[in-house]
Amino acid sequence: ASRTFRRSFNKMVWAAYNSMLAKQPLLTKALTSFVGFTAGDVLAQNFVEKNEKYDMARTLRMGSFGLLIHGTTGHYFYGALDSALPGTKPVTVATKVITDQVFWNPIFGCMFFSYLTFTSGGTVDDLMTKLKADLKTAVMGSWAVWVPAHTINFAFIPPSQRLLYINTIQIGYNIFLSFLGNKDAGEEEEKTK
Description:
Shape: globular
Order of helices and strands: HHHHHHH
Distance between the termini: 64 Å
Helix content: over 70%
Radius of gyration: 18 Å
Structural class: mainly alpha
Number of helices: 7
Largest sheet: none
């Protein structure tokens, strides 16, 4: 009985999600990204970093980045990419993955570090230090996850579901991003002197 209930409940939730996605795609994708970035930071703080004191402001910054930046820009970027390169032929999928990782990935990294720096009260100098210390690591770390993930994404996932698929994987990747985005860039600079 509980298995039947669970199956029915899951179908109901999936139908509601798809209905909302059809009616309000931008809002749905923004909310999905909010959940993904919030969950990634909660997991990072509680299970990876194991901080003595939980930083709620940090979680709010990460979640709001998902809501305001990731979900919205992802909606438009992947929509434009699918319009410019329709289909799932191997050459099309490879072109989409390369475009995503060579062009969008560094832009995304700059948006991510800018948002976290400025919403934490940082300066342009702080941002430049952060980008110098961590952008290359973020971009290269992304390749290990997102090249195979986007190969599957662009080959098999319907365009309307792309951001949901991305956000599902993003929860795990956000643990890495949350850690990297919230570590002090000055520490790395001191170690290299």
